[in-house]
Amino acid sequence: MPFIPHTQDDIREMLDAIGVGDIEQLFDEIPPGLKVEALAGVPPALGEMEIQRLMRDRAALDAGHLNFIGAGAYEHHIPAAVWEITTRGEFYSAYTPYQAEASQGTLQLIYEYQSMMAALTGMDVSNASLYEGASAMAEAALMAVRANRASRSGRILVPATVNPAYRRVAGSIASGQGLSFETVPYCAATGTTLPAALQAWDDADVTALVIQQPNFFGGYEDVAALTEWARAKGALVIAVVNPTSLALLTPPGQWGEGGADIACGEGQPLGVPLSSGGPYFGFLACREALVRQMPGRIVGRTIDLDGRAGFALTLQAREQHIRRSKATSNICTNQGLMVTAATIYMSLLGAEGLARVASACVRNAAELVGQLASVEGLRRAFSGPFFHESVLQLDRPVGPLLESLAKRGILGGYDLSGDYPELGNALLVCATETRTAADIETYFQALNDVLREARVA
Amino acid sequence: MSTIPAELKYARTHEWLRQEADGTVTVGITDHAQAALGDLVFIETPDAGRSVSAGEACAVVESVKAASDVYSPVSGEIIEGNAALASQPELLNSDPYGAGWIMRIRPAAGSETSALFDANAYQATLED
Q1: What digits encode the pLDDT tens for the residues A410-452?
Q2: pTM of the full structure
Q3: How far is B120 from chain A (nearest CA, A)?
Q4: Residues of A with CB under 8 A from a CB of B
Q5: What is the tens place of the pLDDT at every residue in A232-242?
Q6: Which residue of A has its CA nearest to B41?
Q7: In this structure, which long-range contacts are made by residues A360-364, counting pairs with CB atoms below 8 Å and at least 24 apart in sequence?
Q8: Is the interface score ipTM higher than 0.95?
Q9: Cβ contact (<8 Å) for B67 and A149?
Q10: CB < 8 Å to A149, chain B
Q11: Is the CATH code 1.10.10.60 the one for domain A350-456?
Q12: Which CATH architecture has domain B9-109?
């Protein structure tokens, strides 16, 4: 399909037709104080040669490290076929196609993706994806406020064990729309949200409760008890989940009596490389009763005039090209290419393969944490089981230690002291199925060496 | 030509209102409105007990090509939404003044309907 830009004459003709002098005038309704004339920190344009060099140098920074950082983005093995197929020209678009007659392949792929995500989360319906996990959680909060008509407060309870980046993004996106996010403290011994911590809101009007499973510290929340507390008081439950872990854990649709209402999260673990932080994709699924409050594209299966099965965008009256300012979201497209990779990844692994990946993560992380916690000066911060990451407390600042490890080619974990100062010198470490026993041994030896040198110095 | 029953009152935004003997009012959208929207696929009715102000959006009608808010023509309390529309939204196309009613409202004391149009005046707004 060729892209044919408008000529100056076309533009002039259109402006004349609506009686507007120039394109800038179309934006007059935005108050001048809100306009940003120039973006700070964005450098001037570079030529192809310079940009190629820059990208090569940046890419080199990603390579050659032994990675033990999780904290929301996870290094998994991606079968070679995933991106071989994904990067075929036919799939190469980030956009969701409107034209069913020209886009059956892409539409079917998205439909398969939605079916897999609905099955994985145990929910009735999934959308075609959102930008990434953090904004998916913000959209879920906005959706909960629209859906929970009995609640008028817009109060969303968010445990401190939810990814801090997600909490900041949700605050940025949704606070201006009348939502208030209140933090539920965690238990210092277990690193999880105790149901008793919710008693402070027993008499409050709560619109929704967010529960992250496994939580940011890698531990398991008592999702059944938390869900049932919310249900008993008419609050909706928003599950933030790791898709890999769902191969082993109870899916949100089956949490407690009745399950969660909305499940969302970061889709990156499903076949998307770390690539310095993006592009990733967010997923969002819900129970059928809430589907008209769901943001984003949804592909449905239908039949054509001759009775043959086909696929088309559906429930579009939620979206901004129809509902304008009252649309469920201004997110009007999806991460089509990332979703293509995720769909192929899930197809290749299957339910059993994904469960094997998840089990290997649990084993390797247990081995890693067990070894590191045996090093003098380190101990586990919390008791209890964990998925593929956990928190260690150190007898010295984390930053310099991580720098020393990085010099030895090891990315030793995520420094928690900025987000959780109350934990002191705390480090979140992760091992997925990609970390071998030899990798863990390498980390263990390097850590011992670095600490010995530091003590001598 | 759309049907505009003489005994009803009308809002500029295409809602109709029928004064019932028990003091409540029944509200729906006009034949003109349903024809303009096309085949309706979903209608969101308000929950009983909700209080609404005149002009407040309190229901949504969604067709294959558009979605529109329905505004309450009076201030008052919602007594009932038409539950039949949940499974049969097409009732609103086939019988907009009968089985396709959207909600019943108990008007608040002093809530006025005199600003609404009669059938002739509503007909005139359609011809503008």
Answers
A1: 999 999 999 999 999 999 999 999 999 999 999 999 999 999 9
A2: 0.89
A3: 31
A4: 149-150, 292, 317-318, 322-323, 326
A5: 999 999 999 99
A6: A315
A7: A360/A432, A360/A433, A361/A244, A361/A387, A361/A388, A361/A431, A361/A432, A361/A433, A362/A248, A362/A387, A362/A388, A364/A388, A364/A431, A364/A432, A364/A433, A364/A435, A364/A440
A8: no
A9: no
A10: 47
A11: no
A12: Beta Barrel (2.40)
